[in-house]
Design brief:
The chain has five helices and no strands. Helix content is 54%, strand content 0%. The longest helix is centred in the last third of the chain and has 19 residues, at 100-118. The protein has helices spanning 44-56, 60-73, 79-96, 100-118, 129-143. The protein starts with 43 loop residues before the first helix and ends with a helix. It is an all-alpha fold.
Length: 146
Amino acid sequence: MTTTDRDRDDDGRAKQARPRDALGRPLPYGAVGVEPVSEEPLPPLETLTAARALLDDGRPFSAHEVLEARWKDCPEPERPLWQGLAQLCVGVTHARRGNPTGARRLLDRATSHLTAYAGTSGPTYGLDLDEVLDRARRCVETAVPE
């Protein structure tokens, strides 16, 4: 049974109908939030371009959503890459929301996925995964001091 007070589709999956702030926090209905991102997966390079633009705009939660759409649609061998990148963005989101425990946990999970993927011959679409991880660590450390 689907209730009418929640934003769900006919299959019960959550929809992005509620406005959100730049860090993905839900806002009251009627409030002006950031423009939602498409839930449709983009090709790999377009995904990276869109995620980077969102990160540059201070929207790591939205960047995570773009990467997550790709992760759910990518070839199986690439899943650790896209999952790790999406988790990095969630870690940055937690850091900027003031949640150091969540930020570090997501950074650890992302590091595990990206390190494992780096050991394969899978495409990285021009990303230097070590540099990506270093930048994410610096971002988390800056936002969440020890």
